[in-house]
Structures are given as C-alpha cells and as structure tokens.
Amino acid sequence: xxxxKQSLLWIKLGMLKSSLLLLVLAGGFxxxxxxxxxxxxxxIAIAAPGRVEAPIDLTxxxxxxxxxxxxxxxxxxxxxxxxxxxxxDAGLEIANAWDLDADNAAGLQCKAFGAARIMRVPxxxxxxxxxxxxxxxxxxxxxxTRRLNFSSEGRRxxxxxxxxxxxxxxxxxxxxxxxxxxxxxxxxxxxYRPGDTAPPGGSLKVITTRMTPGYLRPNGAPYSxxxxxxxxxxxxxxxxxxxxxxxxxxVDDPAYLMQPxxxxxxxxxxxxxxxxxxxxxxxxxxVPGAQAPRW
Length: 295
Known about the structure:
Blueprint: H1 5-25, H2 31-37, E1 60-65, H3 70-73, H4 89-96, H5 100-105, E2 124-131, E3 134-139, E4 144-149, H6 158-164, E5 175-181, H7 183-187, E6 203-209, E7 214-215, E8 222-223, E9 228-237, E10 243-252, E11 261-270
Parallel strand pairs: 4-5
Antiparallel strand pairs: 1-2, 1-11, 2-3, 3-4, 5-6, 6-9, 7-8, 9-10, 10-11
C-alpha cells in the first residue's frame, strides 16, 4: 500500500493521540503528573506590545564602537568613493553631483544624519521609554530623536501599523513602527514546567518609512523618499560582563540601489551620561587630496 506524506502525518498524529489516551486510561500517569511533565498547551497569553512585553532592556546610555568601515564612518570619504554601497546608475548620478557647500547653504546639514544612517554615525545614544508604547532614541551627534512606535491596540502586524503613518509629514527620522520578535518562543510553556523561568531573549524589529531623502554616506551616496529602513536590535553580554547591542540595518531603495544595503553597528553600554555631548548636524569636508580608490 502506498501512502503520501500527508497520510503518514495523519497516521502518526492518530497514533500519538491514542498512546496518550491509553496512558491516562491505564492510570499510568495522573492528570496532575501529566500537566507537570508534558505541557502541550502552547504559548501563554502575552501582554500588549511595548514596554510591558520587552524581552530585552535597551534603555540607558550607549556609545557606538566603530569596528568596521572606519574610514567611511569616522571621516568623510573622497567624492566618488561609494565602496560597498550598491548604487544604481541613478544613485551614482546623484552621488557624483554632491556639493557640501551647496547642502550647507540650503540648510541641509542633516542629510547625513537621517534614520537610514544615524546608527552608523559615531555617536552616543540615550534610549528611554517616552510612554508604554514609544521607545525614544536620542543621539548626541546631530541632536536627532527617533521614536519607535509599538501598537497600543493589541497585537498588530507591522504592515498594518505602517499604513497609519502613510500620510505623515516626512522628516529626517521618518515614521518608525516596532515590535518584539521571538517573544513567543521564550515565553512558551511547551518546554518548561510550571514555575520554571524561560531564558531571556528576543529582539526588536523596526520598520521606518516617510523619511526625507538623505545620505547613506556623508559624501553624497543617496537614499530616496521611497526608501524603506528595516532594523533588528539584538542585545548581548560579553564574557567581561559588558553589555552591548547590535543593530542590523537594511535599506531597500528601488530608486537608487541595485539591492538592499545591509550594515551592522555595535553599541556598548555606558554607566552614566557624563560623556553626553549634543552637537548640531555637521559634515566635515573630505581630507585634502583624498581620492576614490581605482580598481
């Protein structure tokens, strides 16, 4: 007799149910013992998204630690140096027309401090809950403020929440919606007895739209008003006890990029705000004589 995969699956499920029923009827296990040792009721009910449900604590003072792309983050690269930024022809045309003096004269100093780049800027951050559903990120570089908006109406998809901001005015930091990921896995009772504590975990996912066009690099590599920014925040503790978070940044821009532009940036927790030093947006000119590499 031939069985397809679906038939075999139903047979196995039927055998499992029958085995469990026989065990209970035979008195081999009391219902209380079964409840303590074999918990199959899935994840517990979760609280409303936001501060109450947070599986990781991102609040506090943080400093960016520049361990990669040093020459592209700490300095303004030479005109034409867009290494690793997947600009298409339209993006290259915009980038090659970059004029720092013109930007400054037009009051566009913050084009390199928008949401799509601010986490790559050498900066300090102060992260706090503005209310139960709004996580606020302040950067001292450029004196920028981001607000990550969680649903205040129960569990909703990020796409649904994005539609709420479809008609919002554009800004350097755009409109960000946020939700915790992998929370159900860590709160599930399937693999834990009552009273056991699940290990900490989870990450923060953020999607940002409605951004004013800006720069992915301070030398004019652009992103357009069609860009969508997706971020994943993960927290970890080093063997030395230092707390870190890593943000993975993905910029999708059909207007100026051939493919998504992906970076990771690292932040270390600081004990206090003694080194906090807000400053206005400012892009330094490239080092005199700097030239784009030629391959």
